[in-house]
Specification:
Oligomer: single chain
Largest sheet: 7 strands, mixed
Number of helices: 14
Distance between the termini: 22 Å
Helix content: 40-55%
Structural class: alpha/beta
CATH class of the largest domain: Alpha Beta
Radius of gyration: 21 Å
Order of helices and strands: HHEHEHEEEHEHEEEHHHHEHHHEH
């Protein structure tokens, strides 16, 4: 099976894990701090706070920015459901926003503006597929309305400009991401107070952690805020450090494979929609996290999926529209997002990861072309 995504783990990761095990300190120790510093440096940011997941990162960002009951947060529906769930965790209300279009499936500025109310406090901007949204347009949108601007950068590790838009950004290191720690995430922010709050909240609201108390030979601590168990451990941080050092090479490979896909599919499948395929000048920065395509309107997606699977090619869907999932449909039955719904109905994600080469792209394109013809 040629998978949609595949982590690259090897001897370096094994050696890094063994080093932590042999060192005897396995959680929230020096590896975590080094990983935070190196991740920030890789993205030209001042600092970072490592946590247990991107979901935890988004939740802590919302909490640290004071978003809560009575507030509305603009969110894309074309995203993993955790983006929306975190708004509910904070006690606020998500407001679903449509995408720009099938060719540019990122949250729409126009629809976001139409859905602002007196209660709107923030917007979560998701860099779908790793393509970084228009920075200055969104900064102006948030600034002119007095809104907090939060980046969901789960798809965008290593992309230029990411983490520099607004108040904070959340990254993911889940197993299918461009770099992985199995589970894990990071918060970045230009605001020192956000860092201080997130650091304390990730560890039960305690004023010091176990490693700090061990290093300083003290035993006391206080709890000054409601906190959570959202820590990253040294085992994951050690894996993250080895992965981070290969991120640029892997993202360059993803970029090459994406361009091969674009060239091949434009020639062989002219009826196939290729999001982000029409180049803007300058082209948007991207981590090329996934390879999305939009099937022709009359295509039977399940038959296309089956045809690819029959020859050992996995596909996926990024994503079902969040507002149409049962939990949210029951709570927001009147929401209609025509572009998002159409995109979710016709979208298919093709394999894209650094273990692939040009022959894999050609194979996928050939089988997909045949499936669409029949």
């Amino acid at each position: 099976m040629l998978p949609v995504a595949e982590p690259i783990l090897g001897e370096e990761e094994k050696a890094a894990l063994c080093e932590v095990v042999d060192g005897g300190w396995i959680t929230m120790g020096d590896r975590v701090r080094v990983f935070e510093q190196e991740f920030a440096a890789e993205h030209n940011l001042a600092d970072a706070v490592a946590v247990s997941s991107c979901t935890a990162a988004l939740h802590l960002i919302l909490q640290s920015l004071g978003i809560g009951p009575g507030d509305e947060v603009l969110v894309p529906s074309l995203t993993f459901v955790a983006t929306v769930n975190c708004v509910l965790y904070a006690g606020a209300s998500p407001v679903f926003v449509d995408i720009e279009g099938l060719d540019w499936p990122v949250i729409s500025l126009t629809d976001a503006a139409a859905k602002c109310t007196a209660r709107t406090r923030a917007v979560i901007l998701m860099h779908y597929a790793g393509y970084v949204a228009e920075r200055e347009a969104w900064r102006y949108f948030a600034r002119s309305r007095g809104l907090l601007l939060i980046e969901d950068a789960a798809h965008a590790a290593g992309a230029e400009q990411v983490g520099t838009f607004g108040n904070a950004a959340a990254f993911s290191f889940y197993g299918n991401k461009n770099m992985t720690t199995a589970e894990g995430g990071v918060v970045t922010s230009p605001d020192r107070s956000v860092f201080e709050n997130v650091r304390q909240m990730r560890n039960h609201g305690m004023t010091s952690g176990t490693f700090q108390r061990f290093s300083n030979q003290t035993v006391g601590y206080d709890v000054t805020m409601l906190g959570y168990n959202y820590r990253m451990d040294d085992l994951r941080a050690a894996i993250g450090l080895t992965q981070l050092r290969k991120l640029k090479i892997w993202n360059d490979k993803r970029r090459t494979l994406t361009q091969l896909y674009m060239d091949c599919l434009k020639e062989r499948c002219p009826a196939l929609g290729l999001p982000f395929g029409e180049r803007k000048e300058p082209p948007p920065p991207s981590a090329h996290h996934i390879m999305p395509v939009v099937l022709p309107e009359d295509a039977d997606r399940q038959k296309v999926i089956d045809a690819l699977r029959d020859v050992g090619i996995q596909t996926s869907n990024h994503y079902p529209a969040a507002h149409r999932l049962s939990f949210y449909r029951d709570r927001f039955p009147s929401v209609r997002l025509p572009q998002t719904e159409e995109y979710a109905r016709r979208q298919l994600t093709l394999p894209l990861h650094p273990r692939m080469d040009a022959s894999h792209v050609d194979r996928v394109a050939t089988v997909l072309t045949t499936a669409l013809m029949h």
